[in-house]
Amino acid sequence: METLLFCPLSLRGLLLRNRVVVSPMLTYLASAGLPSDEHLVHYGRFATGGAGLVFVEATKVDPCGCSTTKDLGLWSDAFVVPLARIARVIQAGGAAAGIQIAHSGRKARRSLPWEGNQPLATCLGVEQDQVWTLIGPSAVAHSPQCEVPVAMSAADIKAQIEAWGAAAARADAAGFDVLEIQAAHGYLIHQFLSPVANQRTDGYGGSLDNRMRFAVDLVRRVRESWPANKPLFFRLSAVDDMGWTIENSVVLAALLKTHGVDVFDCSSGGIADQVTGAAPIAYGYQVPYAKRIRAGAGVMTMAVGMIIHARQAEEILAEGSADLVAIGREMLHNPNWAFNAAEKLGIPAPFSLLSQNAEFWLKKRSRVKGIQSSTSLGDTVPR
Ligand SMILES: Cc1cc2nc3c(=O)[nH]c(=O)nc-3n(C[C@H](O)[C@H](O)[C@H](O)COP(=O)(O)O)c2cc1C
User: Fold this and answer.
1) Is beta strand 232-237 parallel, antiparallel or unpaired with respect to 178-183?
2) Number of domains into which the chain is organized
3) 299-316 pLDDT tens trace
4) Angle at which helices 80-92 and 154-173 pack, to 10 degrees?
5) Which CATH number fits the domain that encloses residue 227?
6) Using one digit for the tens of pLDDT, what is the confidence trace for 188-212?
7) DSSP-derived 3-state class of residue 288
8) Residue 197 is assigned to a structural domain of this protein
9) 3-state SS, residue 21
10) Does ligand 1 lie within 6 Å of residue 72's CB atom?
11) Which residue is catalytic, options 28, 43, 187, 283?
């Protein structure tokens, strides 16, 4: 059967084998910003499972931007060689290798999720040298429990934009095929966009144009370092229920397209701990945002959030809501999700998504009379 999900997609000089994307997900496996062998295992299995594009987690452009002490880093050339190993492992599995670059701004410096995700300075047992400066567009805390960040000076803004550009050059040097800018979830770029977090009175605050200026300047700088033949993605919170609206997102996407962003990855929320009016978390809850931005701004979008089933993903593309689908937690559940979806949707030669070895043996096995795959049909042994 012909599907959109398994139809290759050409983005600048890159051809994706399909439109299944592994969403960036922090692993909390780094040490002093450096990846571990577990990263290789973790990312490799998504690629060998058939996805078209595998994103490496939010990798910080500046040590002050780390959410936790276990975040990956890209703030110096020392990270290029170790990250290149991850890119090569993903590519060896047949997928394109993507990396998300990020800075948590006033939301940096937390304990790990399973340690409560608390502001670090207030955590018992935390050494003083693990505490680093929080920065943000304004001296406005994320929540009453959080410390007030230092408002960035004009020089800080310039240095920060430069750090993103340098990180983009390092991601290229490490061999990544796709770069994504993390501007969602209440992190630094989102903080500049937000009328709540951004109380500046200079050219980077106030009007919508001014609040978008940091994102625009940063994208322009990143595009100078990121090769013209490689695609650039931008993840945004399409709505945040705290003053940033879907209409604002349409305006931002149309503007950033002119500065070289190819795909908008449509997430939501994160600027405050309490989000009241945003779409309830249910199957495909953020898909309408991808659809609206795609139609309103005339851009390519990626849908994400509770996309679980193969047919659900196919429908998202068929109804014109998005050009790509990103799968997060379901990939943790089943790293072979893409291969499994190909089987379920009945695409010809689904085994070709796997390694040559697995393809050879599984094809042979599938010719045994009455054989059925446990992943697609459950655990009942046919009699
Ligand atoms: C463990 C975990 C880590 C995450 N880390 C990131 C990240 O590094 N960058 C990011 O933009 N989103 C991150 N997210 C959000 C996911 O990329 C995704 O948008 C979200 O989980 C919704 O998709 P899902 O329902 O398919 O999981 C993370 C989510 C999880 C569960």
Assistant:
1) parallel
2) 1
3) 999 999 999 999 999 999
4) 50
5) 3.20.20.70
6) 999 999 999 999 999 999 999 999 9
7) helix
8) yes
9) strand
10) no
11) 187
283 is catalytic: no
Which residue range forms the structural domain that includes residue 95?
9-348
Token pair 């096995």 is found at 365
Burial (Cβ within 10 Å: 0-12, 13-18, ≥19) of residue 28? middle
Residue 330 in contact with ligand 1 by CB distance below 6 A = yes
> Measured in whole angstroms, how far is the alpha carbon of residue 60 from the centre of its chain?
13
Asked if residue 358 belongs to a domain, the reply is no
d(CA 67, CA 305): 21
The Å distance, Cα 271 to ligand 1 centre, comes to 15
Q: Is residue 360 part of a domain?
A: no
Does the pTM surpass 0.90? The reply is: yes
Residue 359 domain-assigned? Answer: no
SS3 328: coil
Q: Any idea which residue has 């973790």 for tokens?
A: 42
Counting Cβ atoms within 10 Å, is residue 118 exposed (0-12), middle (13-18) or buried (19+)?
Answer: middle
Residue 104: phi and psi, rounded to 5, are -85, -10
